[in-house]
Each structure stands twice: as C-alpha cells, then as structure tokens.
Design brief:
The complex is a heterodimer.
Chain A: E1 3-8, E2 11-16, E3 20-21, H1 26-38, E4 44-47, E5 53-54, H2 56-69, E6 75-78, H3 82-90, E7 99-100, H4 103-108
Parallel strand pairs in A: 2-4, 3-5, 4-6, 6-7
Antiparallel strand pairs in A: 1-2
Helix pairs in contact in A: 1-2
Chain B: E1 9-15, H1 20-32, H2 39-60, E2 69-77, E3 80-87, H3 118-125, E4 127-134, E5 137-144
Antiparallel strand pairs in B: 1-2, 2-3, 3-5, 4-5
Helix pairs in contact in B: 1-2, 2-3
Classes of the chains: A alpha/beta, B alpha+beta.
Chain lengths: 112, 151
C-alpha cells in the first residue's frame, strides 16, 4: 500500500497510489492513514483518482480513518471512479463523507 | 452485442488466502472477456464476487486454519450471469447466509459501522442468492442480471 501526501495551507492531501483498496490491503491502508492524518491538524482530502476498486473492507478502512481524525476534522473523498462511487452510494456512506468527482472540485471547495 | 447472447461457462479454482479474491477476480474478468461487458456491469460483478470471496477467506477458512480451495463456476444464461461458489470450510452461522441489513448511519461519528456491508452489497446487487451446506461443502448460488442489448 502506497500513500503520498502534500500540504495545501491547513489541508493535507493524501493520494492513494494503488488501484485497489480491498481486503488484502485494508489494514495497511488504515495504519498508513493514521500516520498521514496524525501528522496534520486540519482537514484531509483523500485523492482516489488512481483507485479502480474499493470493497467493503476498504470502505470500512476509510470510515475508520475518518473516525481516527475525530469529529472536529473532515475527511473528504475526491476523484471517485463510478465503481468506487457505487460502493459509497449503495451503503449510503456518500451521506457521511463530502465527495468530489475531481481533485479540482475538492481543492476549489473552501469549506474543506 | 451478439457476444452477450452466447451461452458459455467457465470454472476457476483458487486456494484461500489474503490474495485469493484478487486472484479469482482477475481470472473471472479474463473468462468474461468474450461477453464484452461494460464498466458498470463489470463493477457490479467485481463487487458481488469480491464480497462473496472475502467472506469465504475470512469466515469459512479463518486465519490459522488450513487454507482450502474455493471453486467458482460461472455460466452465462439468458437472465444473466450465474455463479456457483463452493468451499470446504466452516459452515455459515446457524446454517444460513446473513440477511444483510443496511447499516444505520444515523449515529454519532464514533459509532459509524466499519464492517458488515458485505452481505448487504451481495443481496443488493445479486439475485437468487441461495446458500446450502452439502456434506462438508458450502455452496452459494447467485445471479448477476446483465442487461442484454438485443438487436
């Protein structure tokens, strides 16, 4: 599992450099997200542009990452492919996360 | 779209383990190539089968148990893609497949569920889901409805 991050003002942008967040990597994703989000204090935008598939384990790991950040910070999701978006929509988790089709849209949203 | 009307079948076998679902899904996609399915159909199949296989890896052959085989039989019929998935692992709780209720999200942040979505997704996306224990074997049948573009 490979994550990289950059800082944009108070926001941290974490990019998933993998095509899948599934059962095989969910645990390692969660651990790496803990490091990435602990190093920042503001909101986090998760760049999912390279991710083609998220299963329920991956979804659970993303939810866990948001919970680790606490209620005062937001975890926004950006660059979701239709298949990835579908998992969030079917489980209604799309109501829990701010979601953006593109990174551009996420970066342009000043509330994140 | 005539390919979609061809009935065909395939069989795939993998050994349970952390990468079993990925391995099986890759083989399923190769087997499905003649059907020329679109991205949405493939996404549905990938989700249904990933959740089915994850459940087997996690619950039928739990960590520490002897890694067993998972057999997948696929058949394209007029009403969609039929899958039969077999394993020799532990039986389902109470001998039934979980109902798969949608998680309650109207809760505090810290109470949001981090799991339990698998069976909900399977039952939401697949039709005719039927589980039976046959001797030492778990057999799960399901169908993914594929919309056909008749000429």
């Amino acid at each position: 599992m490979n994550l990289t991050s950059t800082t944009d003002g108070t926001r941290r942008i974490v990019t998933v450099n993998e095509s899948r967040i599934d059962a095989a990597v969910a645990l390692s994703f969660k651990e790496l997200m803990r490091v990435e989000t602990d190093e920042a204090t503001g909101n986090v935008i998760l760049n999912l542009e390279q991710v083609q598939f998220v299963d329920s384990s991956g979804l659970g790991a993303i939810v866990a990452s948001m919970k680790m950040m606490g209620s005062s910070r937001t975890l926004a999701l950006a660059g979701l492919t239709p298949t990835v978006e579908k998992v969030f929509r079917l489980t209604r988790m799309d109501s829990v996360f701010p979601m953006f089709t593109s990174m551009e849209d996420a970066l342009a949203d000043t509330s994140i | 779209m005539t390919h979609k009307n061809k009935n065909f079948s395939f069989q795939i076998g993998v050994v349970s383990g952390p990468l079993a679902a990925r391995e099986a899904l890759a083989e399923i996609f190769v087997a499905l190539e003649p059907m020329s399915l679109d991205v949405e159909e493939l996404g549905t199949i990938e989700l249904v089968m990933a959740e089915t296989l994850n459940n087997i890896v996690e619950h039928a052959y739990p960590a520490g148990s002897h890694p067993g085989r998972i057999e997948i039989f696929g058949e394209s019929k007029a009403d969609g893609l039929h899958f039969r998935v077999e394993d020799n692992g532990l039986t389902m709780p109470d001998g039934h497949a979980p109902i798969g209720i949608a998680a309650d999200l109207d809760v505090d942040l810290m109470d949001l569920p981090e799991g339990g979505f698998g069976w909900f997704l399977i039952r939401d996306l697949a039709k005719d889901v039927a589980y039976e224990r046959l001797g030492e074997k778990n057999v799960l049948n399901l169908r993914v409805a594929i919309t056909r573009n008749e000429p």
